[in-house]
Every structure is written in C-alpha cells, then in structure tokens.
Amino acid sequence: MNTYEKIYLVVRQIPYGKVASYGQVAALAGNKRWSRVVGYALHVNPDEKGIPCYRVVTKDGYPSKAFAFGGENKQIELLMSEGIEFLDGHVDMRKYCWDIPSEAVLVSD
DNA sequence: CAGTTGACGGCCC
DNA sequence: GGGGCCGCCAACT
C-alpha cells in the first residue's frame, strides 16, 4: 500500500454532508504532516468519480484555489448540494468537519 | 542520487 | 483577526 492509496482510501471514507481538512485526511492516512502530500495525491486524482476530492478543504474551511477539475466555485456548489453552508466563501468547520468515528480507522487494507 | 516542487499546517508578526 | 514565513514528507525531473 503506497502513501497515495492510503490517502485515497481515507478521502473515500468522508461521509456525505461532511468535509475533512488535508491535515485530517493526512492524520488518518498515517501521518499528520502529509498534509502537503495529500494535496499532491489529490492533484493526480486517478479516480475523480470515486474520490470526492471536493470534500477535502483546508483547515480554515477554504477550498484550494488550484482546484482544476471544474473551478473552485464548482467545489463550493457541490458541497452546498450536500447541505453544507458556505459563509463568505468558506465552510463552518466547527459543524461540518468530518466527525471521526474512532481515530485510525481505515487504511486497513 | 540530489535539488525542487506542491490541493497544507502551524507559529509569529 | 489577517497575512507572511518556515517547516514537513513524498513525488517528480
């Protein structure tokens, strides 16, 4: 299992109507410091359909500007479709941050 | 093999 | 509270 696959699996675990920060995903994938690596992994995004990269935002709740699969606004639109409210272009992480089930989870195989 | 880059995060001003 | 700088780890050239 490579680092990327772990990240992809974690991202795939993000439930509907919730968002996770890169650091959050990185932590679940194995190391919190993979925040940047997570971004790189999603950048290559091998499966745009299976991997809801739009549910991944920065810790501030802002979508990445370099979002190139449809535009940053597109990401916001998708998230709003899931019941997530945007305040001045950013999500309320206090409420919409992914509620981690236990802690490390996933990435089992 | 070594240097640079990059969908970030945290600390400091 | 907002903006800027440094640090991290893996992938890329």
Give a concise summary:
With 109 residues, the chain is mostly helical.
Key terms:
two-stranded parallel sheet; single chain; two-stranded antiparallel sheet; mainly alpha; globular; DNA-binding; 109 residues; Arc Repressor Mutant, subunit A; 5 helices
Structure in words:
The chain is mainly α. The chain has a single domain, classed as Arc Repressor Mutant, subunit A (Orthogonal Bundle). Helix content is 39%, strand content 7%. It is built from 5 helices and 4 strands; from the N terminus they run H-E-H-H-E-H-E-E-H. Strand 3 and strand 4 form a beta hairpin. Helix 1 crosses helix 2 and helix 2 packs across helix 3. The mean pLDDT is 87. The chain binds a DNA duplex (13 and 13 nucleotides) through helix 2, helix 3 and strand 2.
Write the layout of secondary structure elements.
Elements: H1 3-13, E1 20-21, H2 22-29, H3 35-44, E2 56-57, H4 72-81, E3 86-87, E4 90-91, H5 93-96
Parallel strand pairs: 1-2
Antiparallel strand pairs: 3-4
The protein binds a DNA duplex (13 and 13 nucleotides) through helix 2, helix 3 and strand 2.
Number of strands: 4
Helix content: 25-40%
Beta content: 5-15%
Oligomeric status: single chain
CATH architecture heading: Orthogonal Bundle
Categorize the overall geometry.
globular
Show unreliable segments.
Answer: none
**Major β-sheet, in short?**
2 strands, parallel
Assigned CATH superfamily? Winged helix-like DNA-binding domain superfamily/Winged helix DNA-binding domain
Structural class: mainly alpha
Count of DSSP-assigned helices: 5
Distance between the termini: 8 Å
Counting structural domains, the number is: 1
Q: What radius of gyration results from the CA coordinates?
A: 13 Å
* Widest sheet, order of strands: 1-2
Query: Secondary-structure element sequence?
Result: HEHHEHEEH
Mean pLDDT: 87
Provide the CATH topology: Arc Repressor Mutant, subunit A
CATH class: Mainly Alpha
